[in-house]
Amino acid sequence: MPAMPGGRSMLSDGRVIGRPLDRVACQACGYAGHAHALGMDDLAAFYDDDYDLSLQDEQAAQARGAFYLGQIETLLDTWRAARVLEFGCGSGAFLDMLNRKWGCERATGTELAAQLAHRASQREGLEVVQGASERHDGQGAYDLCLSINVIEHAQDPLPFLLSARRAIKADGRVLVICPNGDAPSQELLFIDHVSSFSAKSLVQLARQAGLAWEKGYPLPGNADFQAHLFRPAQVSVEPLPPEPVTVSEREHYLRSWIGLEESVRARLAQAGQGPRYAVFGCGELSQLLNCYAPALLYGAECFVLDRPAFDTYLGKPVRASDAPDLPRVLLVAVHRAGAATVAARLRERGFHPILLEI
After folding, report:
1. Can 38-234 and 259-355 be said to share one CATH topology?
2. Hey, which residues does 33 pair with through a beta bridge?
3. Does the reported pTM lie above 0.85?
4. Which of 48, 85, 245, 337 has the maximal Cβ count within 10 Å?
5. CATH code linked to domain 259-355
C-alpha cells in the first residue's frame, strides 16, 4: 500500500510523531499491518505518561461507553457475565458502567498506559492491573473477557487472544470490538494501530488461539467498527466469515489522503471566495489533517463550532458558528457518517461547505 508522505504519523490520542506510516496488507485474508514491525519498546513509548485518549473528553467517553454497552448486550442476548475481565480498560469508565449495571461479582481491567491505569484504579469496585494485556494471566477465572478498540493496538494480536482464551472458564466467552477493516477508514492512519482486521482475518487468528467464532457483524449505527463473539473452540461449530476487503480499497483510501491537499485547493479555487476559509470541527479528523495535510490547517483562519467550549485548538482560535465576519467557506472536518448532514445545515445558514473526499 502507498506510504504516507512527510515522514511523520499520528497516535490515536492526536500526538504527531516523527515516524513514517507505511502499511502492507494480505490479499487472501484482508489483514493489514505495518511494513516495519513495531516492538514493545515502541508501544511503551507511545503509551507513556502523556497518553490520555480516554481522559480528553470524559462526557464523550461516557456516551461511547453507553453505545458499546448496548451493542454488547445485544450481541450477548440474555446471557450476562458475573466475572468480567476487560483488556485495555483505559480510564475504567466503561468497565465501571458495566459493573454498575450488571452487578458483577468481579470486574477486572488491564491497562498499559500508567496515567489511565491510575485513573481506573480510583473507581470503586474495579481491580486494575497495569501492564500489557497479552501478559496477563487470568487463570480461567472469568466468564467474559472483552476488549473495545484495543486488539488493533497489540504488538502481536495472537498472544493477546491466547491470553483472553486462558482467562475464561470452559464455558466462557471472548468479545472483541475493533475497527472494521472491511470498511477502510481513519484507523489506517494511526501509527499505534498495529493491525487492521477484516472479519476473516480476525476469525482465522482467533482459531489459532483456540477460539471459535459464534457471531459478529459491523456495528449498527457505526459500520466503521465491528463486534465478534467467540467461545472456546471445542464448544461450538465455526461458520465461515465473509470475504475480506480487497487491498485496492485500502490503497484507494490512503491515496485519497495523499492527494487531499491538492483536491481541496482546487475546490477552494472553484469556490471563488479568495483565500479565506475555516475548518468546521475540532476532533479526530482535524487532528489527522494536522498530521497528514498540515498545509490545509496552516491556511485556515480558525476552527468553527456551534457551541465552542474552548478558545483555541491546534494553535488556532475557535469561533462560534454565529460569530460575525466568519469565512464563508468551511472545510467540514467531521466523521463521514454525519458529514453530509452537517454540510446541508451549514449551507442553509449561508456557508459554502467543502466535504473532504476521503
Report:
1. yes
2. 24
3. yes
4. 85
5. 3.40.50.20
Return per-residue pLDDT of the chain as tens, 358 residues: 889 988 999 999 899 999 999 999 988 889 999 999 888 888 888 887 777 665 556 777 788 899 999 999 999 999 999 999 999 999 999 999 999 999 999 999 999 888 889 999 999 999 999 988 888 888 899 999 999 999 999 999 999 999 999 999 999 999 999 999 999 999 999 999 999 999 999 999 999 999 999 999 999 988 899 999 999 987 544 555 666 667 788 999 999 999 999 999 999 888 875 679 999 999 999 999 999 999 999 999 999 999 999 999 999 999 999 999 999 999 999 988 899 999 999 999 999 999 998 8
**Domain chopping of the chain, boundaries:** 38-234, 259-355
CATH number of 38-234: 3.40.50.150
